[in-house]
């Protein structure tokens, strides 16, 4: 435990560092899918400021502040992490780097990976050099994820992988994929899956983008044809990949719930709504009432995320908390964007119109309660594991 | 940001409180009290005082246990679970906080009397059907060194039986808070027949005499004393309502596991599983707002207002959902007086109104968030 004095020292130092290093363009503004810095070999930075911010943050370990220093993080403890968040929020700093490597694979590797794997895979994630995508879903395996069929045949020093994934976000931009592969076809469905790491540049990996209702094509079909995956590219034990998959999902759910950007990127909904009103225009009564409710719920949900982190730190964490956060956070985010659309009125109806990405962002949020496990699946998890219903 | 996990002391306090209440104040005790037409159990209040509950916010120098607002919330939460009737909120939380914000010998004596459980209080603020202290119209007219109070108060919770009243009235240049005995000449108390079967009164003040001694804090500046008291009350009431939600939810889930239809327990129906799961999520989210409010009242009381309103708003909506879902998932039996779930519904409605309803508090939150 550090003294308050040491913590305050950390705060002062951090504040100065942020002041000097977070470019003005990387402060404030509503978080949007299009403003995220994803990193990776194929990533095109939106601006020099975005690149500078990522690189400067990475040099201090601030792209993954809680990871150990040897893996590219800053090794912050919970008290320091809170200060980090407060100071970032204070200047409205955008997240310098957000990626599936940070939010999904990283935590899984930290938990299940060998020391060599951690040293090999984590630092490039922290520096934004390698971008990962997630190969879980298949045409026949959505909510019933454990029924994945993409198979890996044991060829001694490698697995020969064949099959198809779908809805693979940014597969066309990613450098590597972590995938659920059936390595034992005889075992019960949860007991024959392995968690493999595959280089997207390998022969036999192909992607085909799918266009979304928002006009963007963030996800793809991913095909594996006789792809050779060396044996050391497995995380955890052969045929026990479901344990890794589930653990990773809890982190994915936390991210989707809003843990990444903060539910409102730290900004009050009302303030954002006010900005979209014309000069002298007042917020209409029902809109304001709905916004109030949404804000109350968002603040309390944000506190819940913090409370769960405090509990995890104290070792009293609730196991399936992530399902709850995912359900509440995503349903709220959808409401929030409905309100932003309502506030925008007809200005919000044009692609790249006066309100920029607003309609695309609105449409994108509809996936929040589907990706990473649907709201219905989250409720089923809570009722079964927390409430003991229908066990 | 405050740590939102319960401390070891708080967990111990909650366990001790639960142990006592399960024995002395299960819902059955409330039912018996109601059936007997009573709204107060003096013996139990004395026992609570002996355990330090009445003095939870009274300094040790005045004989209190001085455990703080988060601890008061823990107690209120446990009481809420089994609908415990007591003057805890009015006396131990609201009045004690008001008195604590006044530093004179008279306040110290009053605090000591609260801690022993010998004196109970009620807060007389509301004049219309909605909470709005700023709009007080009852007047306290200067007369010599003192005042004359005339006007009407309504929804004075614990007001029919309380020994003393905290009365908010208009004076020349603002609002003033008076602390007077409830039996002073000119005061008429009419007990209200409340849906939650608890004490509440309409109180008429007809030229009631008050001296300068009866003023809590400064004349014309009631809010410096009353504001912290009201916030403390709102936070503790929110905690009680969160406890109430947990109580109603516990009953409901137990029923889902027991009641059979179509040859299986009804908890096997996904439609009900998802309703119950959703409710649990709401309860969890509200719990965070409750702890946060308690922490801020203890650590940074001058800046706790938004946290308190967030807690009361969330607690209100969650309790209302909990009782509605509770009755629905019980089916017909949930509508009977013989079954307890209806008690939760009625208490939730009263709690929703007391010290500011959902709209009042959501509006406070919005104002603090800049809209
Ligand atoms: C934008 C976006 C990005 C995505 N990115 C990725 C990615 O990067 N990698 C990846 O692997 N996957 C990704 N996914 C896939 C996502 O995880 C799946 O869409 C999701 O798990 C649901 O599966 P499904 O689409 O097959 O729907 P289904 O499982 O077919 O569900 C259809 C409907 O039935 C309901 N339902 C299903 N089972 C039950 C049940 N038991 N009880 C009650 N209701 C039920 C669902 O809730 C839903 O409403 C992404 C999805 C989207 C929309």
UniProtKB/TrEMBL annotation, chain A:
Cofactor section: FAD
Entry annotated with the keyword Flavoprotein: yes
Keyword Flavoprotein found: yes
Superkingdom, taxonomy of origin: Bacteria
Domain Acyl-CoA oxidase/dehydrogenase middle: 133-227
A Pfam family that the UniProt record links to this protein: Acyl-CoA_dh_N
Domain (Acyl-CoA dehydrogenase/oxidase C-terminal) ranges: 239-387
Classification via SUPFAM superfamilies: Acyl-CoA dehydrogenase C-terminal domain-like, Acyl-CoA dehydrogenase NM domain-like
Transmembrane segments: none
Chain ranges of the Acyl-CoA dehydrogenase/oxidase N-terminal domain: 49-129
A GO MF term: flavin adenine dinucleotide binding
InterPro entries: Acyl-CoA_Oxase/DH_mid-dom, Acyl-CoA_Oxase/DH_mid-dom_sf, AcylCo_DH-like_C, AcylCo_DH/oxidase_C, AcylCoA_DH/ox_N, AcylCoA_DH/ox_N_sf, AcylCoA_DH/oxidase_NM_dom_sf, Mycobact_Acyl-CoA_DH
GO cellular component: plasma membrane
Keywords in alphabetical order: FAD, Flavoprotein, Oxidoreductase
Family in the record: Belongs to the acyl-CoA dehydrogenase family.
Matches recorded under PANTHER family: ACYL-COA DEHYDROGENASE, ACYL-COA DEHYDROGENASE FADE29
Protein name per UniProt: Acyl-CoA dehydrogenase
TrEMBL record, chain B:
Family: Belongs to the acyl-CoA dehydrogenase family.
Keyword Cell inner membrane: no
Residues covered by the Acyl-CoA dehydrogenase/oxidase C-terminal domain: 228-368
Keywords: FAD, Flavoprotein, Oxidoreductase
Ranges of residues in domain Acyl-CoA dehydrogenase/oxidase N-terminal: 7-118
UniProt-recorded name of the protein: Acyl-CoA dehydrogenase
Record has Lyase as a keyword: no
InterPro entries associated with the record: Acyl-CoA_Oxase/DH_mid-dom_sf (IPR046373), AcylCo_DH-like_C (IPR036250), AcylCo_DH/oxidase_C (IPR009075), AcylCoA_DH/ox_N (IPR013786), AcylCoA_DH/ox_N_sf (IPR037069), AcylCoA_DH/oxidase_NM_dom_sf (IPR009100)
Pfam families listed in its UniProt record: Acyl-CoA_dh_1, Acyl-CoA_dh_N
Cofactor(s) listed in the protein's UniProt record: FAD
GO molecular function: acyl-CoA dehydrogenase activity; flavin adenine dinucleotide binding
């Amino acid at each position: 435990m550090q003294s308050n004095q040491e913590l305050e020292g950390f705060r002062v130092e951090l504040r100065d560092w942020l002041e000097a290093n977070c470019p003005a363009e990387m402060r404030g503004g509503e978080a949007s899918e299009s403003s995220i810095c994803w990193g990776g070999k194929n990533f095109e930075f939106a601006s020099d400021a975005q690149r500078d911010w990522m690189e400067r943050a990475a040099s201090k370990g601030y792209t993954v502040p809680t990871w150990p220093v040897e893996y590219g993080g800053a090794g912050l403890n919970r008290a320091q992490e809170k200060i980090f968040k407060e100071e970032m929020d204070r200047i409205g700093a955008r997240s310098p780097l957000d990626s599936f490597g940070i939010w999904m694979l990283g935590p899984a590797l930290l938990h299940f990976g060998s020391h060599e794997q951690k040293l090999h895979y984590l630092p490039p994630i922290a520096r934004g050099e390698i971008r990962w995508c997630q190969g879980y879903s298949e045409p026949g395996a959505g909510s019933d994820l454990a029924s994945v069929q993409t198979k890996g045949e044991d060829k001694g020093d490698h697995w020969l992988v064949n099959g198809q994934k779908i809805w693979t976000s940014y597969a066309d931009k990613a450098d590597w994929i972590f995938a659920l592969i059936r390595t034992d076809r005889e075992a019960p469905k949860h007991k024959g899956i392995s968690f493999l790491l595959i280089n997207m540049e390998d022969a036999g990996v192909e992607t085909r983008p799918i266009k979304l209702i928002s006009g963007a094509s963030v996800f793809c079909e991913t095909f594996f044809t006789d792809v050779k995956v060396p044996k050391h590219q497995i995380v955890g034990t052969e045929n026990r990949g479901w344990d890794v998959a589930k653990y990773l999902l809890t982190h994915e759910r936390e991210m989707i719930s809003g843990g990444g950007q903060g539910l409102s990127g730290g900004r009050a909904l009302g303030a954002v709504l006010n900005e979209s009103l014309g000069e002298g225009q007042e917020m209409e009564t029902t809109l304001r009432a709905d916004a109030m409710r949404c804000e109350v719920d968002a603040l309390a949900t944000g506190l819940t995320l913090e409370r769960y982190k405090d509990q995890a730190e104290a070792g009293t964490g609730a196991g399936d908390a992530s399902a709850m956060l995912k359900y509440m956070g995503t349903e709220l985010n959808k409401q929030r964007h409905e309100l932003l659309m309502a506030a925008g009125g007809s200005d919000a109806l044009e692609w790249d119109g006066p309100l920029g990405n607003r309609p695309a962002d609105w449409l994108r949020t509809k996936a929040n309660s589907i990706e990473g496990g649907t709201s219905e699946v989250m409720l089923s998890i809570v009722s079964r594991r927390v409430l003991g219903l229908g066990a | 940001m405050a740590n939102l996990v319960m401390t070891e002391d708080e967990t111990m306090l909650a366990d001790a409180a639960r142990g006592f209440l399960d024995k002395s104040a299960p819902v059955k005790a409330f039912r018996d009290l109601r059936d007997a037409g009573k709204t107060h159990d003096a013996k139990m209040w004395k026992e609570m005082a002996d355990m330090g509950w009445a003095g939870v916010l009274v300094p040790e120098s005045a004989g209190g246990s001085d455990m703080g607002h988060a601890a008061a919330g823990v107690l209120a939460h446990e009481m809420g679970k089994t609908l415990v009737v007591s003057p805890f909120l009015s006396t131990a939380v609201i009045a004690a906080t008001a008195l604590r914000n006044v530093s004179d010998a008279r306040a110290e004596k009053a605090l000591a009397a609260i801690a022993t459980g010998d004196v109970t209080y009620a807060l007389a603020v509301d004049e219309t059907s909605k909470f709005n202290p700023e709009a007080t119209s009852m007047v306290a007219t200067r007369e010599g060194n003192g005042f004359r109070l005339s006007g009407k108060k309504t929804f004075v919770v614990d007001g029919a039986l309380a020994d003393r009243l905290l009365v908010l009235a208009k004076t020349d240049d603002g609002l003033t808070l008076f602390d007077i005995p409830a039996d002073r000449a000119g005061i008429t108390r009419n007990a209200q027949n409340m849906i939650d079967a608890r004490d509440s009164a309409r109180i008429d003040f007809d030229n009631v005499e008050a001296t300068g001694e009866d003023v809590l804090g400064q004349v014309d500046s009631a809010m410096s004393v009353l504001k912290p008291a009201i916030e403390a009350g709102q936070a503790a009431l929110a905690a009680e309502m969160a406890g109430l939600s947990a109580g109603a939810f516990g009953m409901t889930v137990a029923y889902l596991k027991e009641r059979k239809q179509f040859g299986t327990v009804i908890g096997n129906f996904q439609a009900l599983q998802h309703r119950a799961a959703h409710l649990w999520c709401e309860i969890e989210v509200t719990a965070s707002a409750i702890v946060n409010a308690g922490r801020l009242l203890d650590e940074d009381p001058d800046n706790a207002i938004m946290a308190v309103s967030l807690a009361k708003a969330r607690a209100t909506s969650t309790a209302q959902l909990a009782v509605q879902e509770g009755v629905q998932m019980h089916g017909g039996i949930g509508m009977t007086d013989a079954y307890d779930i209806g008690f939760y519904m009625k208490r939730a409605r009263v709690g929703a109104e007391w010290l500011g309803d959902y709209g009042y508090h959501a509006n406070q939150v919005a104002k603090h968030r800049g809209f």
